[in-house]
Amino acid sequence: MKQILSPLLLALGVAAFTLSPAEAQVTGNAQAGKNKVAMCIGCHGITDYKTAFPEVYHVPKIAGQNAQYLEAALKEYRAGTRKHPSMRGIADSLSDQDIADVAAYYQALGGTFRTRELPPPRPASTAVEALLKKGGCISCHGDNYSKPISPDYPKLAGQFPDYLYVALRSYRDDTHTLWGRGNPIMAGMVKQFSNNELRAIAGYIGSLPGQIETKEETWFSPLDREVKTDEKDVVKDVQ
Q1: Contact indicator for 7, 86 with CB cutoff of 8 Å
Q2: Which of 104, 112, 164, 237 could form a disulfide with 30 if both were Cys (CB 3.0 to 4.6 A apart)?
């Protein structure tokens, strides 16, 4: 079995991903996944951590994110349809089972935060509301931008605005060899907008309360966790 990791980029990325019959049989195990995330912790286990490629921005919050979305994103990095050198290298080292386990772990890591009830989103400005309607964002990402119509899509509310902005631009620059993201649905949506408009969309969605977070972790003090798998499961630190 291939080993560890995933500085999971994850994040904004509205990408429908179709699993082959063989891949569909792989079931993620969150308990196994906690032993495969050593490389993830260095970016995604540090609050407010920023990367510098292709510009300075926060790495995405992934604790509590949909496992199927995280799994789809990693497979897209591995296939090269998401073009990010470090993420491609990490994803290449992972088997389908590793990817499923890591994704299950990060979904469970959100604990009760990922299922908390959210208040109605604050109204957007007239200008931003027009942009959101033009892009049809809520039609895929659902109420509060936290109830996507498919678990292959990400929860967006509360994600770092600067990350959302960079991710949106990556879909628009879909042919770029270092950071483009090849998804026809997202490409068609974002190519309608200027950089300033994308920044306004990202700023509003990122300002909303959400169900994803960054969980502080350290490889040198491994988390001893009990991970369950039903809808009400939480991840508990063993003191």
Answers
A1: yes
A2: 104
pLDDT at 75: 97
CATH of the domain at 120: 1.10.760.10
What digits encode the pLDDT tens for the residues 128-146? 999 999 999 999 999 999 9
Q: What is the residue whose two structure tokens read 């974002």?
A: 190
Whether 48 has a pLDDT exceeding 50, the answer reads yes
Return the pLDDT at 5.
39
- Whether the full predicted model's pTM is greater than 0.85, yes or no, is no
DSSP at 71? H
Query: Three-state DSSP class for 82?
Result: strand
Range of the domain at 122: 21-222
Mean pLDDT computed over 114-122? 91
Q: Tally the domains of the chain.
A: 1
* 4 lies in some domain: no
Classify each residue of 83-109 as buried b or exposed e, where b means 16 or more C-beta atoms within 10 Å of its C-beta. Answer: bbeebbebbeebebbbbbbbbbbbbbb
* Beta carbons of 192 and 135 less than 8 angstroms apart: yes
User: What 3-state class would DSSP assign to 135?
Assistant: helix
Angle at 193 between CA 196 and CA 148, to 5 degrees: 105
Is 50 contained in some domain? yes
Residues 109 and 10: beta-carbon distance below 8 Å: no
Is 136 domain-assigned?
A: yes
> What residues have CB less than 8 Å from 196, skipping those under 6 apart?
none
Q: Is 193 inside any structural domain?
A: yes
